[in-house]
Known about the structure:
Largest sheet of chain B: 6 strands, antiparallel
CATH superfamily of the largest domain in chain A: Response regulator
Mean pLDDT of chain B: 81
Shape of chain B: elongated
CATH superfamily of the largest domain in chain B: Histidine kinase-like ATPase, C-terminal domain
Number of helices of chain B: 11
Helix content of chain B: 55-70%
Oligomer: heterodimer
CATH class of the largest domain in chain A: Alpha Beta
Distance between the termini of chain B: 83 Å
Strand order of the largest sheet of chain A: 2-1-3-4-5
Number of strands of chain A: 7
Number of domains of chain B: 4
Low-confidence stretches of chain B: 403-410
Structural class of chain B: alpha+beta
Radius of gyration of chain B: 47 Å
Amino acid sequence: MKTYKVMIVEDQAIARRLFEMIVDNSDDFELLYSVESASVAHMYCDRNCPDIILMDVIMQDRSNGLEAAARIKKSHPQVKIVITTSMPEVSFIDKAKSAGVDSFWYKEADSEEILTVMRHTMEGKRVYPDSTPVVTLGNITSTDLTAAELDVLRELTKGASNVEIGDKLFISPTTVRTHISNMLAKTGFANRTELAIKARLEGLVIPESE
Amino acid sequence: MNIFFGTWILVLTLAAFYIMSDAIQRRRTFYLFLMFVNVAVLYLMLQMTVERVMESEMPLSGTWIFLFAALTVIETGLIVYLHLWRQRHISLASIKDGLDGLTDGLCYYYEDGRLVFVNPAMNDIAREVTGRFATDGRLLWDCLVNSRAFGSARYYDSGSGQVLGMPGGNIYRIVRNRCSFLKSPAYEIIAYDITEEYNLGLKLRERNERLAGQKKRLLEINDTISDLTIEKEILQTKVNIHDDLGKALVGVRSYMSDNIGKKELLGLMNTAISMIDAQKISDRPDDYATVLKAASDIGVNVEITGDLPEDDDDKQLIAAAMRECITNTFRHAKGDTLYIRSYVNDNSEKAVRFTNNGEAPRGTITETGGLSYLRHLAERRGAGMHITSSPQFVLLLTLPDVKRNEYENI
């Protein structure tokens, strides 16, 4: 039976050990590397390329699994990558698809076992969830916010002004103000700071590191 | 007859008044001449008429009456014309009134300092700066340009022009321009009243500082939330481990009751123990440690001379450079050792030099992919990056002295 070489990229030791054990206990996968930062993932691939990578998104050292995945896909397109995350950040799925990531798995929310996802991925299937986990934000759920509002909210969590948000998203500051007003009206939060903090706490939006 | 002559005197007086004031306003010699001629002719005519009438006691002839009538028409026409002209044009007096009423200060003076014009606002400034009203333009400008103040006025730093703050709260921006007056070279000093703009600028600065503080706190909250989220995940995983431990304990009982086999029990125990072991590992890797471990894993030695920077921003840059150079060492240079030297260069700058024991590059290195990203990081940090490919690959980073201030003052 063919065994596939696995690289695990996960900053938390417990989660990393869990993945290691899952891989060790399987018959069709073997552990090649287990690293704690996405920043060095490409180095391992350049040296000895795995067949499949389990890649977390947000690392403690601020490295980004999606960026690392895009880089690896560029130089090693044959490698299968499965993004694993517990963050309900709505843009991760789109970014993963843009980066060429093969599969996407929510650690807490997905009922499907990770091994099943890995096997499907090695068979050439792309396994993506139908939607992001729904989180509550004030009086609404995350599905009640539009894509444009989420983009503005993401920049808002960085403490950006309306002008800075407008410059980043190529919209006018007036439009930014309108989106923020709409979100405040929907969620019932008192001000933009409260909105930003609550959204960040729920993991609904995660600002990109600069 | 008295009414006739009385009217004549009135017309004469009015005409003389208008012609004279017009001459003064327009500063035309012609009008002065016209005024004298006008008055002289009319006086003579009047004199002759009076003598003639007094001597002969005869009514005036038709010719005289025609002459007087014609002159009356001319004089009246002149009065009307001049009156209308005055209504349509600004007089010198009104210009002066307007300038005196300005909140901005104005001063015109010749090159030798003789004043041409000073308005009250500038005189107030002169009193604060020189101790008396403006008498010499050069003295006034000398005091302004050298930030001298007699009273309690104070000067502010400004990018363009001198900014003066008066005791009453008014703020002026002082500039001087060259001009000419009556074809002689002169200067104009203008003190623009920028009180409102300055105060608004102060409020804006305070607001921006407050916002910068809020932004900083929000970013700190972001970091805290990131840590909290990670802790939340770890806690959830520990809860799962707790469940696994529970399963293992139940498994022991089941084993003892012959409900499960030894292999199954060992599996459950192994899982539980492994998870407990994993909790001991630190979850906070150091940037350098992560890269050095990766280098070791892929078979590249790293020899470091000197102390690598510990500042967070510098560390991020140096770690990124280490990653690129390690990759370059085995991928392109076919080497197995990366040499890193950290030192202070001749310009007292912190420098970090990377090279390897592999083959030298063939030709000039093109910065793409990782090196391009590294250059972006270096420029953002304000660091210098220099790559040489002959006789061997060398990457040199020079780090800035002062940390770039993320929250600039307005």
